[in-house]
Amino acid sequence: MSEYNVKKLRRTHKGRIVAGVCSGIGEFVGIDANLVRIALAIATLFGGLGVGVYAIGWLLMPEEDTDTSIVQDLINKQQDRSRTDWSGEQKPQS
């Protein structure tokens, strides 16, 4: 079978200013990251939506060198804690 080159939406290290959200979106869509930054700045000025979109992207988009996002890491950590009882022994997974 042939492998497909699938683009994945990731926060990038190259071109990063804060968390890499805009540069990741720009790379995924194929446009300059500065256009994404301008669009989010305009959205922020007209109602503050840009800040929320950026925050959601930061939480849900994984780094380019990982497979899980910040939210997924927190969920996995919570699940690991719930599997461990107070004595420190692992509970069997169901």
From TrEMBL:
<feature type="transmembrane region" description="Helical">
    <location>
        <begin position="38"/>
        <end position="61"/>
    </location>
</feature>
<dbReference type="Pfam" id="PF04024">
    <property type="entry name" value="PspC"/>
</dbReference>
<dbReference type="InterPro" id="IPR052027">
    <property type="entry name" value="PspC"/>
</dbReference>
<keyword id="KW-1133">Transmembrane helix</keyword>
<keyword id="KW-0812">Transmembrane</keyword>
<keyword id="KW-1003">Cell membrane</keyword>
<protein>
    <submittedName>
        <fullName>Phage shock protein PspC (Stress-responsive transcriptional regulator)</fullName>
    </submittedName>
</protein>
<dbReference type="InterPro" id="IPR007168">
    <property type="entry name" value="Phageshock_PspC_N"/>
</dbReference>
<keyword id="KW-0472">Membrane</keyword>
<feature type="domain" description="Phage shock protein PspC N-terminal">
    <location>
        <begin position="7"/>
        <end position="64"/>
    </location>
</feature>
<dbReference type="GO" id="GO:0005886">
    <property type="term" value="C:plasma membrane"/>
</dbReference>
